[in-house]
């Protein structure tokens, strides 16, 4: 079986596409694929009915942290940033440039997705607790998206965020699905950013772009956002039992699988930082799984041999689907259908693997200690 470590770049390029102009960058951000970040909307009336009194003490402490806004002056580029961009960017190979641009565009889209969702909830509810939370989180995500966009503008590839908001398709999720998916997105975002930051802290010679110097305090924003959703879910205990355990399992696997396939389209990016994509992903899975024990009663077994084999298989099928799409015609359609069915079957194997059970701690919040 072909392993992800032996991916050829032409296969990777099929998956990430090529960005040569601002129009390409904006088109990539707007496009919805299985791997790309999406924009969401939800049931605002249900959000308005949330009652967080059972976690009031921890909630109020968290709100004070948001109000303190320790990152209010963090997302400012200094003179060293500009100098590093000027020095380091010409050293990137064309292939590495494409992978880095894909990383920036998908990261910006993900951050801006959170900004839009949180702001729309804020505008459409009256619940003072949830309204206040959404105001703070939208503020943070707006800063993150804007900061990434400045780096894209260094390549003359800035994203028109207003146009992106108007043109990208929105997916409706029930509030509980928003909680599961967004909690995981925020926590896995923390795990990704802190793993990169710690690696480049140890190996500063591998820091090929200055944006990585901002990742530590940045990812603590992501961590706090996840804590917010953990408190909401713990305040609604029905979300963490019964049939909802199956939904939790689904979202964990969907987030992990999406990340794994997407990251294996960027082997040069991880190699430049001193990682192998597989090792990096499993470190991120490990951190995320440790954190998620605060709120999820179930945990997928990332060390199960079938889990690892299925992750590899999903990468292969993603490449096969991209090649079939490029081929076109009847044979291309058959190839796409075949790879899609195989992916569903593979995900099903993942879904029915045994899970680990967790006893939820009395104290909900955890500290960003990784």
General description of the model:
There is one protein chain. The protein is globular, with a radius of gyration of 20 Å. The protein has one domain: Ribonucleotide Reductase, subunit A. Helix content is 66%, strand content 3%. It has 370 residues and is mainly alpha-helical. It is built from 15 helices and 4 strands. The protein starts with 8 loop residues before the first helix and ends in a 13-residue tail after the last strand.
Task: Give a topology summary.
Elements: H1 9-16, H2 22-30, E1 39-41, H3 44-48, H4 56-68, H5 79-88, H6 94-124, H7 128-153, H8 161-167, E2 170-172, H9 175-202, H10 215-235, H11 244-263, H12 267-272, H13 277-292, E3 298-300, H14 305-327, H15 329-351, E4 355-357
**Percentage of residues assigned to helices:** 55-70%
Question: What is the CATH C level class, in words?
Answer: Mainly Alpha
Low-confidence stretches: 1-9
Structural class: mainly alpha
Through-space gap between termini: 35 Å
Count the E strands: 4
DSSP strand content: under 5%
CATH-scheme architecture: Orthogonal Bundle
Estimate the mean pLDDT confidence. 91
Query: So what's the overall shape?
Result: globular
At CATH level 3, the topology is Ribonucleotide Reductase, subunit A
What is the chain-wise order of helices and strands? HHEHHHHHHEHHHHHEHHE
Profile the largest sheet: 2 strands, parallel
The total tally of domains equals 1
**Number of contiguous helices:** 15
Compact summary:
This protein is mainly α.
């Amino acid at each position: 079986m072909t392993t992800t470590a032996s991916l050829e770049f032409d296969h990777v390029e099929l998956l990430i596409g090529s960005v040569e102009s601002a129009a390409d960058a904006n088109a990539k951000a707007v496009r919805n694929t299985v791997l790309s970040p999406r924009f969401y909307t939800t049931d605002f009336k249900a959000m308005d009915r949330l009652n967080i009194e059972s976690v009031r003490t921890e909630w109020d402490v968290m709100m004070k942290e948001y109000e303190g806004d320790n990152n209010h002056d963090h997302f400012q580029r200094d003179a060293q940033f500009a100098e590093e961009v000027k020095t380091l960017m010409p050293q990137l190979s064309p292939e590495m440039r494409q992978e880095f641009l894909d990383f920036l565009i998908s990261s910006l889209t993900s951050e801006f997705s959170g900004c839009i969702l949180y702001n729309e909830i804020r505008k459409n509810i009256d619940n003072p607790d949830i309204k206040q939370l959404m105001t703070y989180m939208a503020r943070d995500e707006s800063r993150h998206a804007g900061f990434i966009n400045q780096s894209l503008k260094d390549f003359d590839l800035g994203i028109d965020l207003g146009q992106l908001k108007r043109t990208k398709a929105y997916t409706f999720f029930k509030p509980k699905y928003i909680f599961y998916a967004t909690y995981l997105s925020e926590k896995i975002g923390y795990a990704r950013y802190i793993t990169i930051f710690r690696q480049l802290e140890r190996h500063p010679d591998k820091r090929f772009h200055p944006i990585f110097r901002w990742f530590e305090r940045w990812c603590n924003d992501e961590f706090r956002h996840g804590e917010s959703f953990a408190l909401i879910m713990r305040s609604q205990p029905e979300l963490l039992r019964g049939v909802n355990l199956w939904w939790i399992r689904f979202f964990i696997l969907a987030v992990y699988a999406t990340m794994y396939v997407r990251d294996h389209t960027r082997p040069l990016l991880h190699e430049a930082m001193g990682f192998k994509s597989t090792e990096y992903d499993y470190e991120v899975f490990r951190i995320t799984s440790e954190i998620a024990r605060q709120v999820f009663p179930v945990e997928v077994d990332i060390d199960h041999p079938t889990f690892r084999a299925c992750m590899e298989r999903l990468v292969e099928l993603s490449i096969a689907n991209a090649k079939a799409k490029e081929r076109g015609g009847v044979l291309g359609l058959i190839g796409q259908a075949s790879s899609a069915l195989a992916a569903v079957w593979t995900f099903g194997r993942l879904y029915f693997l045994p899970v680990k059970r967790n006893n939820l701690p009395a104290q909900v919040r955890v500290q960003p200690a990784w």
